[in-house]
Description:
about 40% helix; 4 domains; Rossmann fold; about 20% strand; alpha/beta; nucleic acid binding; Exodeoxyribonuclease 7 large subunit; five-stranded parallel sheet; CATH 2.40.50.140; hydrolase; five-stranded mixed beta barrel
Amino acid sequence: MNTSADAPLPVGEVSRLIGGWIDRLGAVWVEGQITQLSRRPGAGVVFLTLRDPSYDISVGVTCYRQVFDAVADVVSEGARVVVHCKPEWYAPRGQLSLRAAEIRPVGVGELLARLEQLKKSLAREGLFAPERKKPLPFLPQLIGLVCGRASAAERDVLENARHRWPAVRFEVRNVAVQGVHAVPQVVQAVKELDALDDVDVIVVARGGGSVEDLLPFSDEQLVRAVAACRTPVVSAIGHEPDSPLLDLVADLRASTPTDAAKKVVPDVGEEYERVRMLRDRARRCVGALLEREERGLAQALARPSIQDPHRMIDARAEDVTMLLDRGRRALRHQLDRADSELTHTHARVVALSPAATLKRGYAVLQREDGHAVRAPGEVEAGETLRARVSAGEFTVRVGTDEA
């Protein structure tokens, strides 16, 4: 349909068109929590408001009295229900509502089954993995606390924490801890505290309650908000048997708000005592170390080498002198023996040399080619030979046998 500023549609026509489009929608099953319930005596129609606690969205629902009477004994404000309904458009007011044809209460067993399915789905994503848990600071300077206004949980955390460490400071966010407003308020408070740089740890605390009362702390939106926090989060919801999904995604689970205060804040008396014990142990360790070193020093000073340090040098000096004399004697003996052997060898060489033989009157006959004559048959008659004697040499001629 074409419209313009010069040819606008009347409000009634727009409302009629919207109603026609909504009438074409089919029936749907809707789940939510009843926040308002109006049953006028004698009226044939019951009015109620159905709210989504996770997203803070509400829608009006109408039904005939006989439809609501079928579940009137088990359904009241705050109950979670599943409604089979058809969207309706009330043109005079331009208001959307749902016309309920059937209302079914959501039982505890069904709620627990859904929570178990959600738990498995989030676990597969790794939101409950131990390795993503952040350690808590030893001594937080500022603690963020999310709890109900003037609740026992708030009192337990504040009083126990300040009793353990009086200087601790808190940044408190009071929110609804059950009902349709709980999830958006708790999520907003956690995000605000996580954005503060001074907050060292966040505690989400609530007292015990029924499964329905603790449902907001198993909401997927809250679980994901806590998983995205950069600040460590402590879950202190309900009592020991209670186990909402917030306990699994939090960095630390405390069984009660009082237990959360004990786990987050150290006890000043216990820390003083621990410091005293460590100081005494250190003093004992240092004393024992000094005594051991003193004993070792006394034993070292009592050694002869320390009392008379020159004794060892003197003893070694005598050994060196003795070894030096022995070495000299051994060297002299070796030299004397070597000299004697050299003299004897020289005498033998001289005695056996050809010159000594020649001095005794012998001569050596050599032919012209320098070979010595060893037998008469090696020379011929008339051959000239060179005779070598001690004082020199001369030539001789070989005579004949006749001569």
